Each structure stands twice: as structure tokens, then as C-alpha cells.
């Protein structure tokens, strides 16, 4: 039996993109797919642009990291893939690269 994958990339070959306690932002609306208890399938759980904090990091299908994100505005804790998130420190929404001042440590010349 062949498992249908939505990507050929194996994220687990590299370290996680986000760290515990890191503030992140949702890149799209997230609706209940039936795995969130107490809410109907299709209910909106997270709005695009909503900020949360990474509280857990797991894996899925031996391929993806799944980031458990606690969203402060709604109180929902939702499992999300890397492509659904961006660091809250990133420049513009959808820009998943850190600004250069944050990406590299500053080395100042000793005077």
C-alpha cells in the first residue's frame, strides 16, 4: 500500500524550524478537521495572522514536524505544519526569513 504524501521533503532530516517558546504567526485560517475536541468539523480555530507560542514539537508520518501552538487570543492549542507558520519576528506576513539583523549574531569590533 502506498501512502499519499503532500510533499517529497523529509523535514526530519533537519532540526525543527521553530523552538519551544518561540512566537509564531499563522499563515492561513485553520479549521477543525475533526481532531479538535468539543468543536464541530469545519469550525474556525485559528485566523490567518493570529499569533501563538510553540508549546510542543512532534512528528507526523516520519516526515513532518508538527508544532503544537497555543494561540493566546482564542486559547486554542493546535498542531500545525511548518508551511502553515512563520516566526512572529519575521518581516512581512508570509516572509518566512528572519530579518538579517536577527538571523545572524552581531559581531562588533572591539575598540
Written description of the protein model:
The protein is mainly beta. It has a domain at about 15-90: SH3 type barrels. The protein has 1 helix and 7 strands. The chain has one helix at about 100-105, and strands at about 25, 30, 45, 50-60, 65-70, 75-80, 85. Strands 6-5-4-1-7 form a 5-stranded antiparallel β-sheet, with no helix packed on it. A two-stranded antiparallel sheet has the order 2-3. The longest helix is centred in the last third of the chain and has 4 residues, at about 100-105. It is globular and about 35 Å long. The termini are far apart.
> Judging by the overall fold, what is the CATH architecture of the domain at 17-90?
Roll
* Total count of helical runs of at least 4 residues: 1
Helix content: under 10%
Radius of gyration from the CA trace? 16 Å
Features:
111 residues, 7 strands, mainly beta, disordered C terminus, 1 helix, SH3 type barrels, five-stranded antiparallel beta sheet, single chain
Quick overview of this protein structure:
The chain has 111 residues and is mainly β. It contains one helix and seven strands. It has a five-stranded antiparallel sheet with strand order 6-5-4-1-7, with no helix packed on it.
Q: In terms of topology, how is this protein built?
A:
Elements: E1 23-26, E2 30-31, E3 44-46, E4 51-60, E5 64-71, E6 77-80, E7 85-87, H1 100-103
Antiparallel strand pairs: 1-4, 1-7, 2-3, 4-5, 5-6
